[in-house]
Amino acid sequence: MNKKAVPPYIGAAYYPELWPAEEVAADIQKMHDAGVNCVRVGEFAWGRMEPEEGKFDFGWLKEVLDAMEEAGIAVILCTPTATPPKWLTDRYPETLRMYSNGKRAQFGGRCHVCKTSPVMREKNRIISQKLAEALGRHPAVIGWQLDNEIFHYDDGCFCPLCAAGFQAYLEKKYRTIEVLNRSWCTGRWSLTYRSFADVIPPRHDTWNHASLFVEWIRFQDETIISYIREQAEAIRPYTDAPIGTDMMVPLELSHEKMNAALDVVQINHYERAEQLADTAFLYDHLRPLKERPFWCTETQAGWNGSFFAANGPRPQGNCYVNTWLPIAKGGEMNEYWLWRAHPSGHELAHGAVLSTAGRPYEVAGEIRRAADDFAACRAFLKNTKVRSDIAVHCSATAALNYRFAPMAEGFDYRERLLRDFWAPFKHYNVDLIETSHPLEGYKVVFSPYLSTLEGDLKERILRWVEEGGTWIVGPMSDCMTDYAAKYTDAPYSCLEEIAGVYTRYQYPLPDPAIAAQFEDGSPLTFSLCYDAYELRGAAALATYTAGRFAGFTAVAERCIGAGRVIVLGGVPDEESLRALAGVLPVAAASDNVMLVSRSGEGIEGVIAIETENERGFVELEGVYEDVVTRARAAGRLELAPYSVTVLRKAEED
User: What are phi and psi of 87, to 5 degrees?
Assistant: First the structure.
C-alpha cells in the first residue's frame, strides 16, 4: 500500500519534544483514527535542537520524521526562530526586542526578538541551515514554515539599531530632509526636522504625526520581510520542498510582499465560531497570490485560549465546516492548533484535537468526517480551480493609512472592506487582490477605501477599462499619499479627472443612512463617508434625494473605450452594489449559504456551504451529482445546518 500522504492535507501542530518518545507511536495511531495526514513540527524546539551554542541534536527529530514517513503522515518542518533558547538571550541580550518605553523584552515568550539585530539574524541562519542540512530532504517533509506568526507586535522594536535603521530607511526614500519636511508638512506644530537623525521612532502611547507612524510601521514590515527571506535563503540549497511563513490576519503587513520570495502562502486564524463565514475573506485574499494552492496552517479545533478558554467552544458542525472552507476556496491544507493540548506552561487553556491525556475531543469526529469527504472529493478538487470575474482591491498601504488617519469615526479598514464590499458577494467567486496584481481576466474590479493608487495602477487600470472592464471606485479612494498625507490641489490625485466629476462637498461621517435613487427611480441607500459630485463629463447613475446633498450626484459613470468607470460617493446597500457590478451569481441561494464555483478541463461544479447553523437552500440550473453521496440533484436543493455539499455538473444524456 502506498502510504504517502496526498492533498487535501488535514492535520495539526505536533510537539514531540514535550512527550516521551514512546508516546509518538500512540499519537500516530490516533492521527490515523482522526483522519490526520499532515503535522507541523519543530517551530518552538530550538532549545532541543541546539541545547548549547554550537552543539546540535536533530537525531530525536529524525526519529519522529521516520515514524511519520512510515505511517504515511506528511510533515511541515518549522524553523524554531520565534523562541531562541535562554543561553542565546543571556549571552546576546541585544537580540531581545525593546519596547517603546526603553525596556527590553524578557526571556520566556515568543516572537520577542529584535529583527534588526545582526547577531539574531546570524543565529537564525545557523540553526535554519543546520536543520535543513540534517532533514531538508527527508522524504516525510512536504514543506517548510519559517518562524511563527511574523508581525510588528507592539509596533515593532525600538532599540538603537532599529532607530538607526529607520533613519536610514527615511533617507533612502526621501533623499533629503527638506523633501521629508515638505511631504509631511512638518511646519505645523513646529515639527520640522533638521536632519534624519532628528526623526525618532513614535511611541504608540503618544499622539504623533500620522506620516511618522505609517513610515515607522512600513520600516518594521520591510525589516520583517528581509528577516524571513534570509531564513529562506539559508534553507533553499538543502531542500526541494516549498517554503512559506505562517502569517496572521492583519492586512498592514503585505501578504503579497512577504510571499513574493516564498513558495507557498500560509495563514493562521482564530475567528470566533460566529465569524465562520468571515474566514473565507482570508482565503479569497490568499488564493490570488500564488498559482500554488495556499495552506491554512493554524486554526482552532474547538476553542482557543491562554489563561482561560476563549472564542468557543464551537457548536457541533462548526469545526467540520471550518475544516472544509479553505479547501473549497482553493487551498490544499487545513491544520489545527494543536494536536494534543500542552501539559504545562503557556496557553494551557487552549483547545486541541486531543486532550492532554490523549483523549479525543468531540471535534475529532468532525475532523474525521471532513477527512473522509476529502477522500471522496479528491479528484474533483485536484482537477478544478476557483476562477473569479470580480476582484476587490485589498491594500496594505490603505490599511496603514486608515489605521493612523481613519477619517471617519470607528473606521476599521479590514472590517469595512469585509462587511461592505466582500460579504455582499457570498454567492459569487471574488478575488481580493493587492494593487500590483494583474487585472486581466476580471470583468469588474472594485477599489473601495483604496487610499492610494499605488505604483502604475492608474495606467494599468485605465488600459483594462478601455478594453472593456468595469472599475467601481470609492468611497475614500485616491485621497492620500502612501504616507497618509492629503493632496492639496484636489480631494484626489486623479480620480475626478478619470471619473469626469467635480467633488462639491465631502462629509466623512458614518450616518446611519442617506437616501438616494437611481435614474430609473429605484431606491438606493448610502452609508459611510459621502461625496457629493457635480458632473464634468460623466453621467449620473444615482442622485441624493434628501439631506444636505439633495440634488447632487451620488454615483457617476463615465465610459472610457469599451469599458466604464463608476465612482461611488458612499457605500451602497448590498442589492444596489450587486446591480452595479452586473455579474451573475454562481446560483440563487439563501443568505446563510456561501457558494464557490470550481471548474477545470471538462469539469464544472459548485460547493455550497451553510455557515450559520440553519437550514438553507441553493437553486440549481441543470443537473448535478453530489460528489460524496453520488445522488443526483436538480432544482431547489435543501441544505442542512453546518453542511458542505460538493456538486459536479452531470454530463448531458
Answer: -60, -30
Query: To which residue does cell 492629503 refer?
Result: 486
- Assign residue 366 a region (left: φ > 0; alpha: ψ between -120 and 50; beta: otherwise): alpha
CA quadruple 290, 416, 457, 184: dihedral sign:
negative
Rounded distance, CA 123 to CA 54, Å?
A: 10
C-alpha cell at 37: 495526514
Q: Where does 454-582 have alpha helices with state H?
A: 457-466, 495-499, 574-581
Residues 6+ apart with CB under 8 A from 540: 519, 553, 555, 556, 557
Rounded-to-integer distance, Cα 120 and Cα 636, Å: 60
Distance CA 553, CA 270 (A): 42
pLDDT of 296? 98
Q: What is the pLDDT of residue 652?
A: 64
Starting at the earlier edge strand, list the strands of the sheet with 38-41. Answer: 243-244, 141-145, 74-78, 38-41, 9-13, 333-336, 295-298, 266-268, 246-247
Residues 277 and 247 sit within 8 Å (Cβ to Cβ): no
Q: Which three cell numbers stand for residue 642?
A: 453546518
Retrieve residue 49's grid coordinates: 535542537
C-alpha cell at 618: 441553493
b/e burial code for range 389-406 (CB count within 10 A of at least 16 → b): bbbbbbbbbbbbbbbbbb
Amino acid letter, 524 = L
CA-to-CA separations, 66 to 25, 62, 135, 188, 476, in angstroms, rounded: 11, 6, 10, 65, 55
Q: How many CB atoms lie within 10 A of CB 626?
A: 15
Q: Nearest 10 degrees: CA dihedral of 402, 404, 407, 408? A: 80
Residue 606's Cβ-side half-sphere holds a number of Cα atoms within 13 Å equal to 26
Report how far Cα 255 is from the mean position of its chain's Cα atoms.
Answer: 7
Tell me how long the chain is: 653
3-class DSSP string for 372-440: HHHHHHHHHHHCCEECCCEEEECCHHHHHHHHHCCCCCCCCHHHHHHHHHHHHHCCCCEEEECCCCCCC
645: phi then psi, degrees, rounded to nearest 5: -120, 120
Amino acid 653 reads D
With H, G, I as helix, E, B as strand and everything else as coil, classify residue 224: helix
330/75 Cα distance (integer angstroms): 21
Identity of the amino acid at 613 = N
Q: Is 648 helix (H, G, I), strand (E, B) or coil?
A: strand
Is the separation of the CB atoms in 447 and 473 below 8 Å? Answer: yes
C-alpha cell of residue 309? 478558554
Q: Which three cell numbers stand for residue 242?
A: 516549498
Instruction: Name which of 401, 558, 581, 542 is nearest 476 in CA terms.
Output: 401
Please give the C-alpha separations between residue 136 and each of 410, 495, 526, in angstroms, as whole numbers: 47, 51, 55
Task: Please state, in angstroms and rounded to a whole number, the distance separating the CA atoms of residues 576 and 606.
Answer: 25
What pLDDT is recorded for position 357?
Answer: 95
What's the first-to-final CA gap in the chain, in angstroms?
Answer: 37
| The predicted structure's pLDDT at residue 1 | 35
Q: In which residue ranges of the chain is pLDDT below 70?
A: 1-2, 510-512, 652-653
Q: What is the 3-state secondary structure (H, E, C) of 249-308?
A: CCCCCCHHHHHCCCCCCEEECCCCHHHHHHHHHHHHHHHHHCCCCCEEEECCCCCEECCC
195 residue type, one letter = S
3-class SS of residue 187: coil
Q: Residue 158 half-sphere exposure, CB side, CA atoms within 13 Å?
A: 18
pLDDT tens per residue across span 526-553: 888 789 999 999 999 999 998 889 999 9
Q: In 3D, which of 369, 359, 358 has the Cα closest to residue 323?
A: 369
What is the SS3 assignment for 330? coil
